[in-house]
Amino acid sequence: MTTPPVASELNLCLCHSCGLACDMTGEPHQCERCGAPLHRRKTNSLTRTWAYLLTSLVFYVPANLLPVMNTKMVGNGADSTIMGGVLDFWQHGAWDIALIIFIASIAVPGVKFVALMLLLITVHRNSLWARKERSTLYRFVELIGYWSMLDVIVVALVASLVKFQALADIEPRPGILFFGLVVVFTMLSAMSFDPRLIWDNEQDKNSHTEEDMDEVASH
After folding, report:
1. Could you give phi then psi for residue 195, rounded to 5 degrees?
2. Which residues contact 18 (CB under 8 A, 6 or more apart)?
3. Topology of domain 42-218, per CATH?
4. Which of 102, 123, 158, 193 holds its CA 20 to 30 A away from the CA of 176?
5. How far is CA 1 from the centre of its chain?
6. Which PANTHER family match (predicted)?
7. pLDDT at position 68 over 80
8. Mean pLDDT, all residues of the chain
9. Residue 66: phi, psi to the nearest 5?
10. Which helix (H) or strand (E) holds 169?
11. Does 5 sit behind a cis peptide bond, omega within 30 degrees of 0 on the bond before it?
12. Can you name the residues that pair with 12 across neighbouring β-strands?
């Protein structure tokens, strides 16, 4: 059974901007259609992914420990953290809002942290384990990343609803800022990871590392 050639063997590269398959022969390496710079692999992919991921983990601690909002009812105010807010909404019968906040604020970041660490560690170890499944996992991480701002949106909507009905007054607290930073850095981490590294063997990785170093030196 003949194995079909890969893009690198045909000296082709897919443009990240417009999706055109471009010939990498000659200089400079720019897309013929849109003029964007071409890279066979994302430059310093693993380093940037680790940096963004660790930064998001650092921000995740104050995002859960610091209050995200302050609720004032009849002159009495109380701060609440993300988990505290989930419990408050649940106890007051708003289980749907509590479930949305829990999924968006606790479950989704946790899944992304575990998934990205798994992808990074297996790539570093040159693992051949479950390549197809790991590629699917990366696409799943990209998909859920679009819904990561649900918690911030829910807090804003609840605050607007409460003020509109003159039931109480809700003000944001520093925790919501840190959670927003967690969302941003996890998205940057997922965007920096190059899923094609999952399918590379050791020889391919060494050649791509040399190409990345040459690209950095030329710039």
Report:
1. -65, -15
2. 31, 33, 34, 36
3. Butyryl-CoA Dehydrogenase, subunit A; domain 3 (1.20.140)
4. 193
5. 38
6. INTERMEMBRANE TRANSPORT PROTEIN PQIA (PTHR30462:SF3), INTERMEMBRANE TRANSPORT PROTEIN PQIB-RELATED (PTHR30462)
7. no
8. 76
9. -85, 150
10. strand 169-172
11. no
12. 23
Mean pLDDT, range 67-80, rounded to an integer: 66
Burial category of 201 from C-beta neighbours within 10 Å (exposed 0-12, middle 13-18, buried 19 and up): exposed
> What pLDDT does 83 receive?
80
Confidence of residue 219 (pLDDT cuts 50, 70, 90): very low
The answer, yes or no, to whether residue 211 has pLDDT greater than 70, is: no
Q: Which two tokens stand for residue 205?
A: 């990785």
Could you give the count of Cα atoms lying within 13 Å of 145 in the half-sphere of its Cβ?
Answer: 21
Which pLDDT tens digit goes with each residue over 158-175?
666 555 555 556 667 788
Give all strands (DSSP E) within 35-122, no chain letters: 69-73, 76-80
Q: What percent of the chain has pLDDT over 90?
A: 10
Indicate the domain borders of the chain.
Answer: 1-38, 42-218
Which residue carries 């710039």 as its tokens?
Answer: 219
Band of the pLDDT at 210, cuts 50, 70, 90? very low
Residue 86: which residues within 8 A CB-CB, separation 6 or more? 98, 101, 102, 105, 106
User: Helix or strand or coil: residue 125?
Assistant: coil
CA nearest neighbour of 135 among 183, 194, 53: 194
**Surface-to-core class of residue 92, CB atoms within 10 Å of its CB (0-12 exposed, 13-18 middle, 19+ buried):** exposed
